């Protein structure tokens, strides 16, 4: 039977019914399409509501052994760096991951899990900026995990930070040593010396380069 014939047949049936019977008939015969439409509307409305105020991630940063797990840090200070670099951050944000820690409360099992997570992040390019104390920076620097900063930073910044450039075993400059004068430290993320680098296969490489340049300029 064609769809038009089915509709015509159902209409004839309903003409002989009272209001309650009509509602019951419609539910009995059309409940699955009704449920499907309602579900689609719910999903659509939920997606629309969730999108209100949502900011697009423009860069992913991982800060290993950060103080952020113990104190509240000034995330706005990092967004401000991007604004100084010319980015409109009103609808954008930096995804800052500070939950990965190793070695501080020594647990071989916990450290192994964290190392697996970091290795996966490097492998799938789900990270643009990596910051860690030297020992945990070297784990990935020895496998050529970071970009050559001489090909990214301006000549001026390379000269300015010549004494803070970090190379693994005399190789390419793959990191910058940051101390208490850096924006990361002033924002509360660290209190001790760390090294920052741009991941070699970063998906947001240019954004990461702009961020690092802005960080170094603001830390002078």
Question: Could you characterize the architecture of this molecule?
Answer:
With 220 residues, this protein is of the alpha/beta class. The chain folds into two domains: 3-51, no CATH class; 56-218, D-Maltodextrin-Binding Protein, domain 2. Helix content is 47%, strand content 15%. The protein is built from eight helices and six strands, in the order ααβαβαβααββαβα. It has helices at 3-15, 19-51, 75-84, 108-123, 134-141, 155-160, 183-186, 205-218; strands at 56-63, 92-97, 129-132, 165-167, 173-178, 194-198. A six-stranded mixed β-sheet has the order 2-1-3-6-5-4. It starts with a helix and ends with a helix.
- SSE ordering: HHEHEHEHHEEHEH
Order of neighbouring strands in the sheet with most strands: 2-1-3-6-5-4
The overall strand count is: 6
Assign the CATH class of the largest domain: Alpha Beta
Give a short account of the largest sheet: 6 strands, mixed
Name of the CATH architecture of the largest domain: 3-Layer(aba) Sandwich
Radius of gyration: 28 Å
Low-confidence spans: 49-53
| Global morphology | elongated
Straight-line distance between termini? 79 Å
CATH topology of the largest domain: D-Maltodextrin-Binding Protein, domain 2
Number of domains: 2
SS summary, helix count: 8
Determine the mean pLDDT: 85
- Structural class call reads alpha/beta
State which percent range the strand residues make up. Answer: 5-15%
């Amino acid at each position: 039977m064609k769809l038009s014939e089915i509709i015509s047949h159902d209409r004839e049936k309903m003409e002989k019914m009272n209001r309650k019977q009509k509602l019951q008939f419609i539910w009995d015969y059309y409940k699955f399409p009704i449920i499907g439409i309602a579900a689609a509307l719910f999903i659509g409305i939920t997606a629309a509501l969730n999108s209100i105020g949502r900011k697009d991630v423009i860069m992913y940063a991982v800060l290993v052994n950060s103080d952020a797990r113990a104190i509240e840090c000034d995330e706005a200070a990092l967004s401000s760096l991007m604004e100084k670099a010319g980015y409109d951050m009103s609808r954008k944000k930096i995804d800052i991951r500070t939950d990965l820690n190793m070695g501080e409360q020594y647990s071989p099992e916990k450290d192994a899990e964290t190392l697996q997570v970091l290795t996966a992040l490097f492998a799938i390019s789900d990270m643009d900026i990596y910051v860690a104390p030297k020992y945990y920076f070297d784990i990935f620097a020895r496998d050529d995990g970071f970009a050559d900063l001489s090909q990214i930073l301006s000549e001026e910044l390379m000269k300015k930070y010549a004494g803070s450039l970090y190379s693994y075993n005399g190789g390419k400059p793959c990191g910058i040593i940051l101390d208490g004068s850096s924006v990361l430290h002033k924002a509360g993320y660290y209190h001790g010396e760390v090294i920052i680098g741009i991941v070699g296969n970063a998906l947001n490489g240019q954004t990461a380069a702009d961020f690092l340049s802005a960080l170094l300029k603001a830390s002078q």
